[in-house]
Amino acid sequence: MLSIKNLTAKYGKYTSIKDVNIEVNEGEIVVLLGANGAGKSTTFKTISGLLKPAAGEIFFEDEQIGGKTPDKIVQLGIVQCAEDRKLFPQMSVQQNLMMGAYVHRRKKNQIKQSLEEVNELFPILYDKRDDPAGSLSGGQQQMLAIGRALMSKPKLMLLDEPSIGLAPLIVEQMFKSIQHINQEGTTILLAEQNANAALSIADKGYVYENGKIVVNGTSDELFSNEEVRKAYIGA
Ligand SMILES: Nc1ncnc2c1ncn2[C@@H]1O[C@H](COP(=O)(O)OP(=O)(O)OP(=O)(O)O)[C@@H](O)[C@H]1O
Ligand SMILES: [Mg+2]
């Protein structure tokens, strides 16, 4: 579904990621692991059109999408949930969700159905539908960011560190929700510091170091890889 070939991306003269190769098949959950600054978010920004590739190609369903504009990429079915959530704090929870449906703004029935699905997945968003997004807790804001992304009915969802800053119990719920979204038919590419939880739900993963992928394999392979365990899983 998504095929990244020898992707290099730069900020000015600084090479942030180099020769990255990633394959995501339809229906999978794929996780990107790596320390702070390793290049995970840069990879996401390049896929979602916020950053143009310096070299290499990104194929989505056999179409080369590297360098296309962010709105074109959303229309093709890829949506990104950024690290910092990018909500509209003064707007209500429901208004934030509706922003996610912008690409489908003429399909009223579909929007209504998507909204019901999101409310079912995260009932708290329905309870707080008229509250300003800025009044939600961190975990609730993360649910809203994911809910808003779902409103665009993506084929592929890019989730950048969805568990960051969340309490352990909420992290567990978050990963269950991600698994549920995947089971309902959305393919997921996930960046996570929480390697243990991420690998438990993922089919496979890629480990970044200084902008390059140094190890990749199925979740089982990564779990049993001594160096990966030491660096990212512990014990
Ligand atoms: N806007 C930017 N301008 C210049 N350099 C940047 C910019 N964003 C990221 N970088 C650099 O690119 C490299 C990769 O950063 P990136 O944000 O992709 O890492 P990451 O793996 O997402 O890290 P984290 O886990 O901390 O989110 C880092 O060295 C970072 O300093
Ligand atoms: Mg990041």
Automatic annotation (TrEMBL):
InterPro entries the UniProt entry points to: AAA+_ATPase (IPR003593), ABC_transporter-like_ATP-bd (IPR003439), ABC_transporter-like_CS (IPR017871), BCAA_Transport_ATP-bd_LivF (IPR052156), P-loop_NTPase (IPR027417)
CDD domains: ABC_TM1139_LivF_branched
GO molecular function, one term: ATP binding
Keywords: Amino-acid transport, ATP-binding, Nucleotide-binding, Transport
One Pfam match: ABC_tran
Domain spans labelled ABC transporter: 2-235
Organism superkingdom: Bacteria
Similarity field: Belongs to the ABC transporter superfamily.
Name the UniProt record assigns to this protein: Branched-chain amino acid transport system ATP-binding protein
